[in-house]
From TrEMBL:
Annotated source species: Inquilinus ginsengisoli
Bilayer topology annotation: Multi-pass membrane protein
Segments traversing the membrane: 26-43, 49-68, 75-93, 99-118, 125-144, 174-193, 223-241, 261-284, 296-313
Keywords associated with the record: Cell membrane, Membrane, Transmembrane, Transmembrane helix
Protein name: Branched-chain amino acid transport system permease protein
Compartment(s): Cell membrane
Keyword Membrane: yes
Pfam family, one: BPD_transp_2
Amino acid sequence: MTDTPLPAAATIRPAASRARWRWPEILFWLAALAALFGLPDQYLILNEIAILALFALSLDLILGYAGIVSLGHAAFFGTGAYVAGLLAVHVAGEPALGLAAAAVVGAALGFVTSFLVLRGSDLTRLMVTLGVSLLLFEIANQAAGLTGGADGLNGMVVGPVLGLFEFDLYGQTAYGYSLAVLFVLFLAARRLVHSPFGLSLRAIRDNPLRAGAIGVPVARRLVGIYTLSAAYAAVAGALLAQTTQFVSLDVFDFHRSADVLLVLVIGGAGYLYGGPVGAVLFRFLQDWIAGITPQYWSFWLGAFLVLLVLVGRDRLVQGLRWPVTALLSRFGGGPRLGGER
């Protein structure tokens, strides 16, 4: 028997299968593109969703794939926003330059703080990330001459995207710009998580001691993904600053970090689409519940999250899907329950 090639083939085939594009993924991005032309009254909300999706994607890279918990991811989001804002005020309003500068500064901050975050347990990481975010908030507040302090950074003038597309009041250019950046960075993240680097991150997440024992450089892998995650979050903050042309201390606020965690709780962590899907559902739930009960929307959103955690996402989705599946099966329009064809 020649059993040597079989394990290699068995290993390569699942990896190739995971990296292959599937129809739900294609339909998701086609729907996002169609919204650019079919929902003219919702451009501002769609832009917020795209930015939140990129922010959640940045957190998913460390939480879902490396197992690094963070309660202060807004530190990088706010840093990117202020870098892009200050660049637009004092240097140039070129959007691509602002994104690049935000990514570089965010990555540098992530690299420096990663050595603090990677020490200790999950509780230590929560406290350190939260502390870094609060520290940057106070620095921005005290440096009012540079950041505007509590009044925010005014006077931003952002030029056209690629020198062609001016930012309009309706937000069409802003949404198209944010969606394009989200898609490009999503492609890069997708390629990364299906690479040997991404597979090593999963091994570290599942069992760091075993990963180190088989030769995976655990510390270097974690520093690398944390640095990349910080760059992604900084780009999301820069998008917010450029599309709104205003930056305030709110970008460092705790609710930013809390909201992005809720997005991943709703969408799911560890498969990249948890961020984009969770951002859509979170924003929809927020607007829908606020339209029904403006004073108590946070209560009902919290109740939904508690239900999601107690019941489980898979069981809840299956419960919501069951009546539709049963109806389709009854009239011969879909697969029967129990997996029958």
